[in-house]
Write a structure and sequence with these properties.
Blueprint (H helix, E strand, L loop, with lengths): L18 H11 L3 E5 L5 E6 L26 H14 L1 E10 L5 E10 L6 E7 L1 H39 L1 E6 L4 E5 L1 H6 L21 H13 L4 E6 L6 E8 L8 E7 L8 H13 L4 E5 L5 E4 L1 H7 L20 H11 L1 E10 L5 E10 L1 H4 L3 E7 L2 H22 L6 H23 L4 H8 L3 H10 L10
Antiparallel strand pairs: 1-2, 1-5, 3-4, 4-5, 6-7, 6-10, 8-9, 9-10, 11-12, 11-15, 13-14, 14-15
Helix pairs in contact: 3-6, 10-11, 11-12
């Protein structure tokens, strides 16, 4: 008895006479549309799912070439399907777009099967719209995740920049004798060993003896070139290691002055989202305003305190605007001074707010040549009656705690702790409200509570009542 070769396609010619019935059977069992195609590629029958037909125009395909039922860019796939079915008996799956209603394309995956050597072709199709929707949703989700990631990275870079403006120690040094010419408040606090580090004092004694030659060479290299030069050094009498960046002042050509930036270890960078969140809390919770301008004095970055001081609607309303707009008569002068001298020490300025009121501020700035090109960073601290009130309130809190301490031995500790907690809570709530005057939501965020909880706290501590007895 002869045995059929399993590699040879089965003869389906016996089924050619019932092609239309097979089309309906396929649709009812496992497909969404089925076509019967003759030898010339003409559609002779169409079967669709009666409950949810793919195309209302499909019945009009009878008598037309199969390739005319799809869009022009996918007609080549129909020709390939027909050729495969003719030569091999089976055309592999191909995805095409049905030319349905004007302006609408329906994706469908066809598989073609020839019923016998000279029989018709049975084309069975599956609706791919749900799959296409899933793929589109996946692409949109992927794009949204990428946008969120880069937004987080941008925020991390932005907050890191503002953090450096607020905390970096910056000083100007004369390389001829290595004397300190000027320094900001952070540098004053950092270089406090033996009372040194003040203007006119030599810089080398501030560093460990083994670090001094490297610091001197660092400043000489910076003076001879145009790019920032980085190095490491250790403070005298301590184990504190610093990262040093020396830059020649761009406005001091022919001068011997070098801008030196001292920075302790940066926060870890393995988790940009966590770093950005921590820096955001620090920067946006700060009382002082922080703003970065380009070489022309236009605002590039700012923190929440600056937005609130100016009474701007948001940070976007400030970006690209000249600092002079908010500090008339002093903004551009501060920018010019920083670019000429590297530092602008504390000066009293007046901010003109959006409602035309004026707010007295202390401004200080430093060049950011090694951090952000030719940008300049400024800090602005309120110095008006509100600030004095906050300072008085802090002093009053200390006095109240001292008064409680005097009652030790006369009042039980739990009672004293309860009264101290109430005093501290009142102080923190008032401080948050002062920092974000007119914006209860921002004050609540600073405290880490909801606006409703802030309202309840105000009630509990008797905010509108006389101060607690000391």
């Amino acid at each position: 008895m002869s045995r059929r070769d399993d590699n040879q396609p089965a003869d389906l010619g016996a089924l050619s006479g019932c092609a239309a019935g097979l089309a309906r059977a396929f649709v009812s069992l496992s497909s969404d549309i089925a076509l019967v195609i003759d030898e010339g590629g003409i559609v002779t029958a169409v079967a669709q799912n009666e409950q949810s037909p793919m195309s209302a125009a499909a019945e009009q395909w009878v008598g037309r070439h199969w390739g005319e039922t799809v869009t022009g860019d996918t007609r080549g796939k129909i020709d390939s399907l027909l050729a495969d079915a003719t030569t091999a008996g089976l055309g592999r799956r191909r995805e095409v777009n049905l030319a349905s209603e004007p302006g609408a394309e329906l994706p469908v995956a066809y598989t073609a099967l020839r019923l016998g050597e000279r029989g018709p072709v049975l084309a069975v199709g599956r609706d791919l719209r749900s799959m296409a929707a899933i793929q589109q949703r996946f692409l949109e989700t992927q794009a949204a995740l990428e946008r969120s990631y880069w937004r987080a990275r941008h925020n991390e870079v932005r907050y890191r920049l503002l953090y450096q403006v607020a905390t970096d120690a910056v000083l100007t040094v004369d390389t001829r004798n290595h004397d300190v010419v000027a320094l900001n408040a952070s540098a004053t606090a950092l270089l406090q060993a033996d009372g040194g580090g003040a203007p006119g004092q030599p810089l080398p004694p501030q560093f460990d003896a083994r670090s001094r030659p490297a610091v001197a060479a660092l400043m000489e290299r910076a003076l001879a070139g145009n790019e920032p030069v980085e190095g490491l050094a250790r403070l005298a009498g301590s184990h504190v290691s610093l990262s040093l960046v020396a830059t020649r002042l761009p406005g001091a050509i022919g001068s011997s002055l070098v801008l030196l930036r001292l920075r302790q270890a940066d926060p870890p960078q393995d988790d940009p989202l966590a770093v950005g969140s921590a820096l955001a809390r620090h920067i946006d919770g700060a009382l002082e305003a922080i703003v970065v301008t380009d070489a022309l004095g236009h605002i590039r970055e700012a923190n929440l305190a600056f937005v609130q001081m100016t009474q701007a609607t948001d940070i976007a309303a400030l970006l690209g605007q000249p600092l002079e707009q908010w500090l008339p008569g002093s903004g551009q002068a501060a920018v010019s001074k920083v670019h000429m001298q590297g530092l602008a020490l504390h000066e009293r300025v007046m901010m003109r707010r959006r409602d035309a009121t004026h707010l007295p501020l202390d401004i200080a700035g430093a060049l950011l040549a090694d951090v952000a090109g030719g940008d300049a960073g400024f800090t602005l601290r309120p110095c008006g009656a509100d600030t004095l009130a906050a300072d008085a309130r802090a002093a009053a809190l200390v006095q109240a705690i001292d008064a409680l301490a005097a009652e030790l031995g006369h009042v039980a500790l739990p009672d004293l702790l309860q009264r101290a907690q109430m005093l501290t809570r009142r102080h923190l709530v008032l401080t948050a409200i002062d920092r974000h005057a007119g914006d209860p939501g921002a004050a609540a965020r600073l405290l880490g509570i909801s606006p409703a909880q802030l309202t309840e706290l105000r009630r509990e501590i008797g905010l509108d009542a006389p101060p607690l007895p000391r």
